[in-house]
Amino acid sequence: MTLSEICRLYQITKVYLNYGLDELLPKQPLTRIPYFMRKMIFWLKNRHDDKVLGERLRLALQSLGPVWIKFGQMMSTRRDLFPSEISDQLAMLQDQVEPFDGKLARTQMESALGGALETWFDNFDEKPLASASIAQIHTATLKENGREVVLKVIRPDILPLIQADINLMYRMAKIVTRFFPRARCFKPVEVVREYEKNLFAELDLMREAANTIQLRRNFKNDHILYIPEVFSDYCRTNFMVSERIYGIQVSDLVALVANGTNMKLLAERGVQVFFTQVFRDNFFHADMHPGNVFVSYDHPNNPQWIGLDCSIIGTLNREDKRYLAENFLAFFNRDYRKVAELHVNSGWVLHNTNVDEFEFAIRIVCEPIFGKSLSEISFGHVLLNLFNTARDFNMEVQPQLVLLQKTLLYVEGLGRQLYPQLDLWNTAKPFLEDWMSHQLEPKALFNVIKDNAPFWAEKLPELPALVYDSLKQGRQMNHRIDAMYTKFIVARKQHNCANFFLGVGATLLVTSAILYSNQVKFLPHISGATALGSWLFAWCTLNKGG
């Protein structure tokens, strides 16, 4: 490890102990060493014993920086896995991270725009509306049209901290890969690389602006999801301007109920939004924690989701999308044989995997969860069991699916909060069946032909020349193959001849030794000379063949 990595690891350990987070370790023999070390390193004592554990965890993650705050945000959505005193505190990491100075935010914005904010905006509020791990939000009014907008600016000097944590994650992933061979199927280095790519994507607000515009266009005429408008003329790499929205944060259940929101329909539409983005558009919001999701105040009986912060977007290639849909449907239909076969056919497990045993292992994990409401099912526990199954069958984690898995966990966490009785299976199954049917119907074939027609039309005049070139290359290839075969036959004959004379030489040499030992005159010398002559001829034959 490099000196900077060692220093960062020490800093993480120091924060961990200063906030007394060793209390999270289970009481068992394996944890005696950390407790012993805690007693020995007396200067790293708990300096916040006046605070509850959940608050200490939140403050520790916040002090460690963006990478750890993101981790806390994800944990905050899994109230089925963590007690409320921890989940409630972690939820504050979604948009209530300690802000940086508003005057510094103004300076950064003006530097990005190349002039004073008052040139383009009125009513700029130096007090942030929200503050998260990567960026901070301020409000203003756009001068050109009087519309209320939000100004988003990247936190200053966070890049070195993020890079240090990413480097440390790479180092730990390589150590795990080297010393724990069974962990290689989870591709820890590739997973860290995918996480790094997505994290650095959040630092580029021009990318977020483009993603937001695309997602807004995808749902332009759809009432289930609203994406705010982006004013791209004012956007820069570290600065972004978009429409200000008013809505109820999806985690504020009291306000949602007070507004008369149809909670069942809202939860079902959350699932619909997810599957629509993945399968219809192949462009899905991959950071749907409650800090980025609101619900419109309007028409509560026909609720509409509002999505913010589109910096992290996931996509799948056509093959993965098809396999994923077929896997979901096979799961919903309890066709575990097909699930096992799809994993083998897609290359997610080795092709020599015993399909019968794999099917049985999947059945053991999945069968108990069917027929239960969402309140009785924990996808976290199911995924844990599936990972254990994956390890036993050398299943490789697909880095391109990591974002999808994370987003699915977010959706489940939101659905559990909004309407615990939601039947995820019955909500998702009709959508997937309809999507699959559209992929197989004649219209889908016609669309493929229509999409490729311009390319085919462009290449059509070249077709005769391409056919002629292919035939010519085929003839040339046949001539080369014939020549190679002729050379092979000649070389094989030469090798056979050389082997024959090597054998003759060896036989004559043995004969010469026997004759010499029996004191026969002249013949041993003649036999030995002939043996050497045979070997010399064999050597010349081999060299000629080479």
Would you write up a description of this structure?
- By secondary structure, the chain is an alpha+beta fold.
- The protein folds into four domains: 92 residues, no CATH class; 213 residues, Transferase(Phosphotransferase), domain 1 (Orthogonal Bundle), CATH 1.10.510; 139 residues, no CATH class; 84 residues.
- It is built from 20 helices and eleven strands.
- The longest helix is centred in the last third of the chain and has 55 residues.
- It comes from Candidatus Enterovibrio escicola.
- Pfam families: ABC1.
- Keywords: ATP-binding, Cell inner membrane, Cell membrane, Kinase, Membrane, Monooxygenase, Nucleotide-binding, Oxidoreductase, Transferase, Transmembrane, Transmembrane helix, Ubiquinone, Ubiquinone biosynthesis.
- Is probably a protein kinase regulator of UbiI activity which is involved in aerobic coenzyme Q (ubiquinone) biosynthesis.
SSE blueprint:
Elements: H1 3-18, H2 32-40, H3 53-64, H4 66-76, H5 84-91, H6 102-113, E1 121-122, E2 130-131, E3 135-142, E4 148-154, H7 159-179, H8 188-201, H9 205-218, E5 225-226, E6 239-243, E7 247-249, H10 253-258, H11 263-281, E8 284-285, E9 293-296, E10 305-307, E11 313-314, H12 318-332, H13 336-345, H14 355-366, H15 379-392, H16 399-418, H17 424-440, H18 442-459, H19 463-517, H20 523-545
Keywords: ATP-binding, Cell inner membrane, Cell membrane, Kinase, Membrane, Monooxygenase, Nucleotide-binding, Oxidoreductase, Transferase, Transmembrane, Transmembrane helix, Ubiquinone, Ubiquinone biosynthesis
Pfam family, one: ABC1
Domain ABC1 atypical kinase-like: 93-343
